[in-house]
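ugh ok fine here u go
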Amino acid sequence: MSAAILTAHEAELLSDSKYRSFINQVEKCLRNFETTSEWADLISALGKLNKVLQSNSKFTVIPKRITIGKRLAQCLHPALPSGVHLKALETYDIIFRCIKTERLAEELFIYSAGLFPLLGHAAMNVRPALLNIYEAHFVPLGRALRPSLPGLLLGILPGLEEGSDYFDRTNALLEVFCKEAESSFFYTCLWEVLLVNPSVRLPGATFVLNHVDKKRSMEDQLHIMGGNMELLTRALCDVVQDSNILVQRSILDFLILAFPLHSSYLVREDMIRIASAAIYIFLRRDMSLNRRLYTWILGVDSNGRLVNFGVNGGSTQRHMTTLRDPAAFYFETFSKDILVIALKTTFSTESEGKVMSVKPLRILISLLDKPEVGSNILDETMLEVFRYMRRNHDDAGSSSSGVSPTGTRRPSQDASRPKEDVPGEVIRTSNLLFGSLEPCFIWDFIGRLFETAAADADDADAAETSAFGGHQRTAGPTVEELCTLVEFLLDVYTLVRCAGAALCRQAFMSARWRIVFIAGMRWKHGALLSSRV
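structure:
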C-alpha cells in the first residue's frame, strides 16, 4: 500500500502490529482466489476471507479493499450458482458492519460495482439477502447516497416486478430512498435511468404511475417531475416510443394523469415534442394503445367521460359537461394546434433521413379514422403531404441517377443493404390516403390554396410567416410552387382516377381552369412562373 495514498488514520494503523498482521492475512486470502478452478473453490476462499474479517472486526479500515471489491464483484457473476452469491453477500455484510456508515459513504464506489447489477439476475433465495443489505446498510446513508442513486435505482428496479414475492418490499425500499434522498432529486435520477436504460423502463414507469395520487392535483405533487424539465421531456419522448407495449401503456396512463394537453406544467414546445413522439404509437395498430392516446388527445375516455380536470374542476370542465360533443370542443381548444405541429414536425424529420419512410402518411391515415380528429387537421396538413411526396419523388430520381438534389455524385449503394421499393411504397400509401378522402376534397383544397397564394402575392407587404396557435406557421405556398406541385401530382398520382365520379371530374376541371386562370394572371403581371406552366 503506497504511503502517498494513505489517510492519516491508515498511516497511524500501520504502526499497529495487529493491523499489519491483518494486512498479511488478507493478502493470503486474496491469493486463494487466484488458484480457484471451480465454484466450490470460490466459496472456500470467501469463507476464509470472512473469518479473517470477523477476527479483525475492530478495525474500521479494510486493507486491500479495492482488490477485495473486485473479487466480490467477480463472485456475483450471473453464471455462478446462488451459493457463491450468498457467500459473497455474507462478505459484503461483514465488511459494511466493520467500516460503519460514514466510511461506507466514502467507499461505496468500491462495493457498488458488484452489488448494483445483482438483483436483475439473482435467484429467488438470493434476493432477500441482497434486500437485507440495502435495508441495513444503504438506507442509513441518507443524503450521502445521492452520488450513487442512479446506479442504485438501476439495480433495485428489476425487483419491482408485479406479482413477485418481493414487489412490496422492493417498492417500500424505493419509497424510503425517495424520502431520504429528497423526492425531487430521487425522481430526477429516476427519469435519467428511464431515459438511458430500456431494460428497467417497465418497472420504472410502473413505480411512477403507482405514485401519482389521483385524488390530488398535480400542483401538489410536482416533485414527480424531478428537477430537470429537459431530462423529463427527453425521457417521456423515449419511453413513449419503447418497443414494449406494456411500457407504452404505463407511460400513456401517466401522461393522461400528469400532463393532459390542457395543462401548463410543461412549456408548449415540450408538449409538442412529446406529442411528436407519441403519435408514432398509431403505427403499432394496438387498440389498447390507441384508446389511451385518443383519451390524451380528446380529453375524454372511451365512454365519453371527462378525464383529469383537477379535483375541483373549473369553468372549462363545467362548460364541457354541457356540450353535446365535449371531445370535439377539447380537441379544437387544446389539442389541435399541438397535434398539427407534431405532424408537420414528423414530416420534416422523416424527410431529413437517408431514406424517406411512409410512417408520417400512415400516422395521418390512422388519425383519419377518428372523426373528431381527422377532418379537423386535413386543411392544416395536406400541403405538407404534397411537399413530402414531391421530396420523396425528387430524392428517388436523384438516387436512381446517382446524383443528389444538390448536383453532387452520390456514393454507390452498399450491396449488402436490402433493395426496398421505398419510393413505390410512399406512392402506394399516398394513394391509399387520397382514396380515403372525399372525391372532391383534394382539388377543392388545391383551388383554395391557389386563391390564397394569389391574394398573398398581390399583397406586397405580406409577411413570410403568420401567427399559428402561438407558434410560427410555415410560410404559405407561392403560385409557382403550387403549379409545380399540381403538375407533379397529375404526372405521378392517380388523383382523378381514384375519385372516379363525374362530380369529381367536374370539380377537377373547375379547379384546373381556376389554376390556369390564376397562373396566367400572375404571368401577365410579371410573376416568374415555371416554363412548364
